[in-house]
## 1
Amino acid sequence: MKRKAYTRLLEWKQDPHRKPLILKGARQVGKTWLMKEFGSREYASVLYANFDIDERLRGIFDTDYDVPRILTALQALTGVIPRPGETLIILDEIQEVNRGLGVLKYFCENAPEYHVMVAGSLLGIALHPGTSFPVGKVDMLDIHPLDFEEFLWATGNEPLARLLPCPDWQLLKILKSKFIDLLRQYYYVGGMPEAVFSYVQEGNLAKVRRIQENILTAYANDVSKHAPTSDVQRILMVLNSIPSQLAKENRKFIYGVLKKGARAAEFEVAIQWLMDCGILTKVPRVRKAGVPLKFYEDLSAFKLFFLDLGLLAALSGAPADMMLIGNQVFEELKGMFTEQYVLQQMVAREDLQVYYWSSERSDGELDFLVQKGGRLLPVEVKAEENVKAKSLSHFVAAHEGMKGVRLSMSDYRDQTWMENIPLFAVLYAL
């Protein structure tokens, strides 16, 4: 399975100032597979240690962080001789180990010639008690579910994917029905690697949904395992409310959807917990379009999006026929999947800061306001071929020199103040 992150791993390997690399990401986004695949292709050998499976590994850092001793122990337990520059050392599920992250500082300072990768759920890395983070001693790489371009690669549609970065709009218009059909499939399957692999190998929609439901169950089990007992119920309430939150016309997160009379103070920790483990993404509101957008953030208003489209479909109980036949997924689900889709493509990019804007009088709202370097991009998302963009037009008119983007099912056109870009070509828009 081809992943864009592979190129980043190559850059890391070739960097003379390379530090131990932490692959961050929610459970089951493909971190372990990516590390093993990279190791098998780019190194003479791979020393793989999984601290969740092999209990003998769990006390390896208890006495000290002496790197030669640790390397000897890893060799004894795995049978692989770690050789500088030739062996990729993979320390998987490191959140299961007391003081696990601390060893990375000593690899960085005392043994930089060894190539070390570490993975674990964001949950464990962020919340493991008694572990100090090795600030400045590690490199980090975020791993996300497959974006739409990677989904096209995985499903054997690489020739179509090559048309998107520098599009011939007339050709894309001819191929529009094919792209929209693939987009429907992506809405249902999503980008979790196991679900995509199963879909490609077997095409069994029911099995794909079972895989998605199993992942959701694993996330709920993580809540019970790792979260403070007093917070478990609130965390699950927030998690299970996401479909109804996104199904609203105004997707601003409303505490009252959780329960009558709910207040921010009651659920702030729960929301932060789900963000820390990578399951939810917060998109804050800004009051003003200025660079940097962070200066104008409204801390009291935000939207919450899910990790993955397919998992959102499973959590919502959206049936396959509604997702895959006709335009119901675009027309009858109030655009919730389409806005989730666009956000998911933006999150996979590391060069974008994503917010949304609404007026103080609540008479106008932009789905997203994106900062890329010193440039601001106002984005309106339409699930159908709706060509009206009232909020976008007013926003652009009020900000001289700004050009908007509308993502919709309509064909490409440039209206001077705004470009309409087909949803399947969202990566071009960004």
## 2
Amino acid sequence: MITYIFGAAHIDNYEYLEKIDFSDSFIICADGGIRHIERLGLTPAVYIGDFDSSVNDEKYSNKIVYPAEKDDTDLGLAINYAAEHGLNKCVAIGCLGGRIDHTYANFSLIKYAYEKNVQLKLIDEKSCIFAVGGHCEIRKEGYKYISIFPCGEKATGITLRGFKYSLADAELDHSFPLGVSNQLIEDKAYIEVKNGLLLIMMVKE
């Protein structure tokens, strides 16, 4: 089962979301994400946050309220909830764009989720961002560019096959963006990292 987490970032176009079948999924609303959920006619299973970007009214009885002064962001709270309840496949919507500091924090939370055994993807109408540890295969699926960065200071033993720019037992360092703007030249491609974690950014244009 996929868990969808809705954040508060602005969404320009809901068309791609209207194509998703949410019927058999678990839905977590992170504070201001409620406006996206209501726009799509959905009901959250859990409504979580400090309610500084939405109204804490009595419409929803399934709220988990945290104080505004806390270490976790609302997405971080949602990840913690998912980890504690065995919801290990999560897709976050409304978590890209908007304030650049929040977007950067959300990239960091991909690694945070991975360490809690939660596979977290951040998506919008043009992007899909996730972490890879070990190895995986990916497909084009309409994405034009695939950028690969170390999720941390360094990742080593990196192999890329099926890409325009291949690698074999290579190293990526956080100080130089060698992995930006690669492309798939086959329908599917192979990624392996022996040490560390990779942040994968798939972009349509």
## 3
Amino acid sequence: MIRSITGRMARIAVLAMGLGLAGLAVPAAAGTVTITVTELRSSEGVVRACMTTVEDIFPRCVRDPNSHRAVVRAGNTVTIRFHNVEPGEYAIALLHDENENGKADRVLGMAPKEGYGFSRNAPVRMAPPAWDDAVFSIGSASQNLTVRMRYFF
């Protein structure tokens, strides 16, 4: 069939067929991650949330320019939504910034004075949790997570 078309038309037909085949590859859909934060000790200040795919910087994911970040008013229970989240491996770090100074305050430079939380309610021992304890997978469907806020004091 292509033999009966002139050379120029044949190239156009081949190009059009190639574009048609390329159109069959559909990228994975981005979803929404909804985080419900529970057990805040007060409604003072804000909750800062950061979600990253970069293991090496977790939980300080504000260093990731591609991270998903949000700041919401504190309350008894807080809901945070990240939209257009590509499928992948993520971890979340939360801070109950009660005095809204933009940082995690500490007692004697070590113990956290304000609330904190991590995806999968990852355990905190003498340091922030390991990536493997907090990481979770996101596919193309939207996902709901619950994170419990914790306080050292």
